[in-house]
Task: inverse folding
């Protein structure tokens, strides 16, 4: 048992690598894996790469050698999350501007389970502001267990979904009751970046010498918008790229929203979306988040949308990553690594991901449809007295 402690104070780390090994040895099961955006720019540090180096293709090879049956990317599901979150934002803001003041604003992005739990405990009167869209981890797993199994002709009990996350709170998220069907979880096992490092070392593999390979299709391709989920401000920037085009009907000339970037713990920016001045707030670290929410609650600040990440710097600084000992320069290099991937991509807006479009056409009708709601949305609980 590892004794590391989550930096958000939520959890003691539990090591599930042995559960993954047992699943891989069970030949009656298919075992697939997804890796989160922030993992690819940090795991290399344990194998001699500089912080921020993107080693995703070497990790794909390592996962294949470890015996996984499908090597997929949580980034793909981050694009899917944006489809639902941007739709929800468009709907809420249009109804609000149309005079319906009962519509809750700001919309709060909901990818960070530590933050979701924090608001459930501490701000139960504000539970209507988080987007109901599931996190990318849970969207990926819901699609895998409910759609991919049918395409593969297997039952959900015969599929094991493993996630590799920069995060310890993701283990808790995977275990939340609403993400299971008859006790069969959507995400069966969530392990951290550090746990994957142990597995790679135990298998006597070295990322430096491994060749590169691609992720599998159809859940392995992503856009630049997806990969910036791993740094502070990235989820709201990705959502803004899509919401802008959907609200205005225009094509964005510049997809980089520089005003939403930076490392101040609590920052705000106004983004022009057609005739609208959309006010956006961003916080990372729970102390900063508390400040932001207290101001919103007191009516001292008004936002249309906010992003909160429990860890400093966002997931690049997550509690499951190689230790950075609070060194901001390491966190920044990882974030810059994600920005470089984003700028190198041909497609940088989630709604242009062809595999996402195909999923809607084949299975979900359109974003925010009834079918999409059933599969991709969730709800929150007051835990004030728990
Ligand atoms: Fe997990 Fe931290 Fe990322 Fe939140 S910000 S999802 S706690 S790694």
Result:
């Amino acid at each position: 048992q590892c004794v590391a402690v989550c930096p958000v104070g939520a959890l003691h780390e539990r090591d599930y690598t042995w559960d993954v090994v047992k699943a891989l040895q069970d030949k009656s099961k298919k075992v697939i894996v997804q890796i989160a955006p922030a993992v690819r720019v940090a795991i290399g540090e344990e194998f001699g790469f500089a912080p921020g180096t993107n080693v995703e293709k070497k990790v794909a090879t390592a996962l294949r050698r470890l015996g996984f049956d499908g090597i997929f990317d949580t980034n793909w599901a981050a694009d899917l999350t944006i489809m639902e979150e941007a739709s929800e934002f468009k709907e809420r803001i249009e109804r609000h501007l149309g005079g319906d003041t009962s519509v809750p604003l700001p919309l709060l992005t909901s990818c960070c389970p530590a933050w979701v739990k924090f608001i459930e405990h501490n701000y139960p009167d504000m539970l209507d502001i988080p987007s109901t869209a599931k996190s990318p981890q849970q969207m990926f797993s819901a699609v895998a267990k409910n759609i991919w199994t049918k395409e593969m002709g297997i039952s959900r009990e015969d599929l094991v979904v493993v996630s590799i996350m920069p995060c310890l709170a993701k283990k808790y998220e995977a275990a939340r009751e609403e993400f299971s069907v008859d006790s069969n979880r959507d995400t069966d096992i969530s392990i951290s970046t550090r746990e994957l490092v142990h597995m790679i070392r135990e298998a006597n593999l070295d990322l430096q010498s491994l060749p590169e390979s691609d992720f599998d299709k159809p859940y392995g391709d992503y856009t630049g918008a997806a990969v910036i989920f791993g740094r502070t401000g990235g989820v709201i920037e990705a959502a803004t790229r899509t919401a802008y085009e959907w609200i205005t009907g225009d094509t964005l000339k510049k997809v980089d929203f520089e005003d939403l970037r930076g490392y101040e713990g609590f920052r705000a920016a106004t983004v022009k979306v057609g005739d609208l001045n959309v006010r956006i707030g961003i916080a990372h670290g729970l102390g900063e988040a508390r400040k932001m929410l207290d101001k919103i609650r007191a009516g001292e600040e008004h936002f249309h949308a906010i992003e909160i990440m429990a860890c400093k710097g966002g997931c690049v600084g997550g509690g499951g990553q190689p230790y950075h000992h609070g060194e901001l320069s390491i966190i920044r290099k990882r974030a810059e690594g994600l920005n470089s991937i984003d700028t190198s991509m041909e497609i940088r807006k989630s709604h242009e991901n062809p595999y996402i479009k195909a999923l809607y056409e084949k299975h979900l009708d359109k974003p925010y449809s009834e079918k999409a709601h059933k599969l991709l949305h969730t709800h929150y609980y007051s835990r004030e007295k728990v």
About this structure: The beta strands are 30-35, 70-73, 107-108, 159-165, 180-181, 184-185, 189-192, 266-273, 276-284, 305-309. The chain has two domains: 17-76+136-202, 80-134+224-376. The pocket of iron/sulfur cluster is lined by residues 8, 112, 114-115, 166-167, 169-170, 309-311, 314-315, 318 (CB under 6 Å).
